[in-house]
């Protein structure tokens, strides 16, 4: 009986060793693939040249932003947001008077290169009432119901704002600025 056990156990170990060897070979192949992939990507990144774009805010400051041809307009806006504290959603970038699309890359425009000057127009944020109404319209079909809910929301919001003390407002402002990384 013990002879039978040893034979079964040896067969089991042999099968496991074969599976382990195949698994090791597979993992080694994957490792080699990723090594080649990273080598290729580092070669590609060497060919990507950085460019400096000057962004002039209409009637305001000027900023220099570094980018590559593969950077999107949205990437540029986010970089500019970090430098200027103007939210990306309020930014409208122009090149020779034409609006640039957020999802397009710099290369897709063809005439944006190192040293190009872009103009930034800061869009005025929508009033709270309009934003709330649009959100209700998105989920509630009847316009009357959306308008009624917007009115109720705004009345409640105004009432709650009126109840805030100066300490509450200061604490709220401090929290908002702290989240944006600014000191009060």
UniProtKB/TrEMBL annotation:
GO terms for molecular function: protein-folding chaperone binding. SUPFAM superfamilies: Ubiquitin-like. Coiled coil: none annotated. GO terms for cellular component: BAT3 complex. Its main location: cytoplasm. InterPro entries: Ubiquitin-like_dom, Ubiquitin-like_domsf, UBL4A-like. It is found in: Cytoplasm, Cytosol. One of its GO terms (biological process) is tail-anchored membrane protein insertion into ER membrane. Keywords: Cytoplasm. The keyword Cytoplasm applies. PROSITE patterns: UBIQUITIN_2. Residues 51-110 form the Ubiquitin-like domain. This is Ubiquitin-like protein 4A. It comes from Culex pipiens.
């Amino acid at each position: 009986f013990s002879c039978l056990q040893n034979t079964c156990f040896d067969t089991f170990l042999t099968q496991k060793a074969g599976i382990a060897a195949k698994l090791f070979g597979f993992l080694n192949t994957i490792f080699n693939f990723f090594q080649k992939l990273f080598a290729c990507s580092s070669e590609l990144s060497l060919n990507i040249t950085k460019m400096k774009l000057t962004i002039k805010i209409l009637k305001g400051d000027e900023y220099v932003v570094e980018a590559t041809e593969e950077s999107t307009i949205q990437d540029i806006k986010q970089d500019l947001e970090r430098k200027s504290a103007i939210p990306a959603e309020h930014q409208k970038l122009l090149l020779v008077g034409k609006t640039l699309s957020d999802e397009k890359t710099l290369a897709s425009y063809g005439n944006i290169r190192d040293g190009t000057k872009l103009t930034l127009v800061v869009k005025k944020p929508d009033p709270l009432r309009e934003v709330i109404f649009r959100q209700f319209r998105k989920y509630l079909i009847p316009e009357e119901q959306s308008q009624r809910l917007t009115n109720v929301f705004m009345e409640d919001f105004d009432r709650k704002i009126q109840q805030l003390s100066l300490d509450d407002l200061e604490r709220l402002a401090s929290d908002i600025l702290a989240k944006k990384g600014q000191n009060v």
